[in-house]
Structure formats: C-alpha cells, structure tokens
Amino acid sequence: MPQPNPNRFVSAYVVRSVARAMLPFYRKIASNKTFASQWGRAVVDVNVTEMQRLFRLASPLAKNPLPGSFKSGYNVYFEFKGKIDIYGVDILLPPGTLKLISQEIRAHQKMAQAILPLYRALASDTPFAEVWARAIRAGNTAKIDALVRRRIPTPALRSISIGGSGVTLTFKFAFSPYTYEHLLYHPVFE
Question: What domain of life (predicted)?
Fold first, then answer.
C-alpha cells in the first residue's frame, strides 16, 4: 500500500505566516553583529528565555514563537490549527559544533542576508507563496530550485531539497570550514 504524501498539507498561508514572523528577525541578524552575537550566545547556552526575549525584540509582531536550541543548531517554530500543527525554521551546523555558532557569527549573518529576498517574497507575494506550497506538495524539487535560485543567487547556496513538508537550503561559505543548513519545514516529533 502506498504511503500518503507527507507534504500534502503545506499551505501558502502557513509558509507566509512563518516568513512574515521570521523576516524581521533575519533582518536583525543580517544587519546587527551585536544582536547576532547575543543570539549565538543564547543558542550555545541553551537559554530559551533569552532566545525568546531576543526574538521578540527583533520580531515583536510574531505570534507565539517557540525558539529552541539543540546539539547542532537552533529552531523557531510557530503553532497552527489544522493538519500542519507546527511549522518553522531550523538552522543546523554539523553535529557537535553548536558551540561554534557564537564564533561563526559572520556565516550566520551571511546566511540571513542570503535568505532575506526569499523570505520577502514568501511573506509579501501571495502567488509566489502559493506556487511554493504547491511545489512542495507535489515534491517538485526542480520548481523549488528555480524559485529559490531566482531569489538567492549566491554561490554559497550549495543545494536545495524538499523534505519534512518543507525545504532545506544548504550553504557553504568560503571563509568557514562548516556547512550550514536552513530548513523551512514541518518538524515531526516522535
């Protein structure tokens, strides 16, 4: 018996809502080294209270952000009603390198700068968000690739994939030995 498509519930509404909430945060990370350093320290210290405070400072209109930190990165999730009950962002470093995020502020800022045009389009362009959600539901990686590369032309963007009812963007910056992954997706907790 074929397995149901795990991507079938992704909607433009959910993706746009997350992009709208995350956009001011990424603007702040991209443009303010002090803020990015504070965020990095809170992530390394697994200080969720400070992460919440900093996120609210950057994105005060975001509804109920759920930031967290784990062995290889951080996340910010948002709750929804319906089949997609939670959706958000993970930033991943290679396993065991979390403590380096506070030293890799430049890479975090460059990744934030790179994704800003994509997040602007997802947040403000309804037809773009609808095409995005449709491509995820269909598992159309070629379409997602085209949508992303039009908005993120940097050679540091190494790969784009669909999974977890969302998209994974993999970055490798010339000045850093590490690979970073940015996930905009529906996490599955087991």
Answer: Bacteria
Tokens describing residue 8: 């079938």
List of the chain residues with pLDDT < 70: 1-6, 98-99, 102-103, 189-190
**Which one, of 105, 116, 115, lies nearest residue 40 by Cα?**
105
Tokens of 85: 């009950």
Which pair of tokens denotes residue 164?
A: 């977890």
Q: Report CA Rg, the chain.
A: 16
Domain boundaries, the chain: 12-185
Nearest to 100, CA basis, from 73, 125, 127: 73
To the nearest 10°, report the CA torsion of 157, 124, 85, 148: -20
Beta-carbon neighbour count of residue 83 at 10 Å? 12
Task: Please state the length of the chain.
Answer: 190
